[in-house]
Amino acid sequence: MSTINKKNLFAVILAGGSGTRFWPLSRGHNPKQFLSLATRSSLLSETISRVQGFIPKDQIILVASHKHRKKVLAEAKKAGVPSMNVLWEPSGKNTAPAVCWAAQVIYQRNPQALLAVLPSDHLILKKNAFHKILMRAFELAVQDYLVTLGIVPTRPDTGYGYLNIQKAKRSQIYKVVRFVEKPDLKKAQEFLKKKTYLWNSGMFIWKAAVVLEEFKQHLPEVYKPFAWARSVSQVRKFWKTLPSISVDYGIMEKSRRVAAVPAQDIGWSDVGSWQALWEILKKGKQQNSVIRGAVLSEKTSNSLILGSKRLIATIGIDNLVIVDTEDALLICRKDQSQDIKTIVNRLKEKKLTRLV
Amino acid sequence: MSTINKKNLFAVILAGGSGTRFWPLSRGHNPKQFLSLATRSSLLSETISRVQGFIPKDQIILVASHKHRKKVLAEAKKAGVPSMNVLWEPSGKNTAPAVCWAAQVIYQRNPQALLAVLPSDHLILKKNAFHKILMRAFELAVQDYLVTLGIVPTRPDTGYGYLNIQKAKRSQIYKVVRFVEKPDLKKAQEFLKKKTYLWNSGMFIWKAAVVLEEFKQHLPEVYKPFAWARSVSQVRKFWKTLPSISVDYGIMEKSRRVAAVPAQDIGWSDVGSWQALWEILKKGKQQNSVIRGAVLSEKTSNSLILGSKRLIATIGIDNLVIVDTEDALLICRKDQSQDIKTIVNRLKEKKLTRLV
């Protein structure tokens, strides 16, 4: 790590999301990153802890939503991250505007800055292995690459985007030659066999200066406003004029200097569904996992149960997710949780906003 | 009905039961007869209404448990049945002691009395058809038969006891020649084909004098104490010495003068399980029945849902019973509700008596 000085390392943790996949536990005011599903602390808190010891506390930047102000400030305080380091998005605009804003703010503080952009709602169980991967990524970023962490596939998953990589001649660097949208099963099986495909994890490492250069070239409509205005009150004025676009689509897929660092055995999961959560949880003999609550089961298997105050009795069931909360109860086939979105939309249509 | 005077007709409604089949809705303090599952009023209330207009209000006798005093008195009052007409069992002793006590009390009031002994937790949807059957039964009871109503089978059910009947020579009377315990499926299928088998409904019609004669002969240990003592305070003294035994086993199976009246198309159900309840309820296109509560469903079929205050969302489920109450939630495969008993027993073992 000869060329890397800790003073130049920054983390940008994207905490503005508001998904519905963990409804009814997650709600608009309490999305996934604030839940502690498989860990003692929330996913956001775990994400902050994960970079601590590697990146100085006051160089950790959070991008979050005003809607979650209290929760975010509490997490920041707990972790020792200055509240000044939180950038408050006036509304959700996907990742590109958030990343551009953070890069500008950091670049002004330190033109030599190297950034690790990290989602706040993924799980990485092996911190030390992750640090090694991150260090390798920073080393590539120093060489002006846009680096993305790619997870080495362990199954033909059709739920992720894939990175098609190619080893550069006379070096150990994997260049990303193509971004592939979520494939069908047949393609995913091919990708798994070929070993030149990685899951796109949404974790990016680059120089602030380099990524700003890329924004200037590929997304000037996002770059320009931040080039002259970065204070919250200024940003608030033009924010609504920004396009809602992802870094992947707006920058990465267009850039010619994207490299990947393959990550294996770091215990990564994007915890993208109740099913994904069940897969990483500790299970009993019948492959059931009870996250909390009092449960009595007879002939029950392969199920995930998250209770609240009342007793839950299950008889003769298999492959279900049961989530009991104060005001809403979900009973869902474990592999059909994609339809939770439909339920949430129906609740919105019925104006039952207190439930979503 | 030449020989039958309304002054002689009595109903004995057995309301002392305390089953667990409808847990968690039914509890020790609120068993099935007090629930309104498929009807506007409770099953007990429906049972009382069903004989009204046929049997004078003050000739309706309830046998009930002290534990349910308030509920029973409220139901009696609502129906115009005098509270004096309730016989309070000090504890559950199955049906024979209750029936013997009621028969003695009624015989003292009217030695010509004819009794219809009726369970309080069955459903009979067609009141007029039921009255016709009941009248036929009283006519046989006048001829000193012990009459039992037998339901004409509509399916090879293995959950009921069966009556094997035989038409008496030169009459329209069906004598019961054999009582058959719950059969296996093969036998039940034979019974269905043969048409000489009826389901034992547990509804009995007889003269008070005749049934007391039978008690004297077959169950003297029950008969004798009531022969000299019928007041509550007296009964309370010897009650605990009585055997716990059913009328079926103690009297009917031993008597030689048992006749059956076949009942068809009276809309009978013993509502013996959540599955049985689902079968008689009105259902939507996907064969779901929501008894109460707010439910949003996606890809949900053949299920019974009974909600309380919280929203219930179901996705990708089939053939389930979901019962949500304030302090307990049941999720059970619809055809496995026999295991509810196991859950209730486990709760008792854990001394969680407030939940049972």
Quick description:
The structure is a homodimer of 356-residue chains. The first copy, chain A, is an alpha/beta fold and 356 residues long. Chain A contains 11 helices and 17 strands.
Based on the model shown, name its key terms:
25% strand; four-stranded mixed β-sheet; homodimer; 17 strands; five-stranded mixed beta barrel; 356 residues; alpha/beta
Oligomer: homodimer
Rounded to the nearest angstrom, the distance between the terminal CA atoms of chain A is 47 Å
Low-confidence stretches of chain A: none
Helix content of chain A: 25-40%
Mean pLDDT of chain A: 95
Q: Helix-strand pattern of chain A, N to C?
A: EHEHEHEEHEEEHEHHHHEEHEEEEEEH
Radius of gyration of chain A: 21 Å
**How does the overall form of chain A come out from the CA principal axes?**
globular
- For the largest beta sheet of chain A, what order do the strands appear in spatially? 6-9-7-8-10
Main sheet record of chain A: 5 strands, mixed, barrel
Question: Tally the helices of chain A: what do you get?
Answer: 11
β content of chain A, as a range?
Answer: 25-35%
Number of strands of chain A: 17
Look at the helices and sheets of chain A and give the structural class: alpha/beta
Largest interface: A-B, 36 and 36 residues
Characterise the protein shown here.
The structure is a homodimer of 356-residue chains. The first copy, chain A, has 356 residues and is an alpha/beta fold. Chain A is 31% helix and 25% strand. The first copy, chain A, is built from 11 helices and 17 strands. In chain A, the strands form 4 sheets. A 5-stranded mixed beta barrel of chain A has the order 6-9-7-8-10. A 4-stranded mixed sheet of chain A has the order 12-14-16-17, with helices on one face. In chain A, strands 5-11 form a two-stranded antiparallel ribbon. In chain A, helix 3 (95-109) packs parallel to helix 7 (220-228) and helix 6 packs across helix 7 (220-228). Chains A and B meet through strand 15, strand 16, strand 17 and helix 11 of A and strand 15, strand 16, strand 17 and helix 11 of B. Strand 15 (311-315) of chain A pairs parallel with strand 17 (328-333) of chain B.
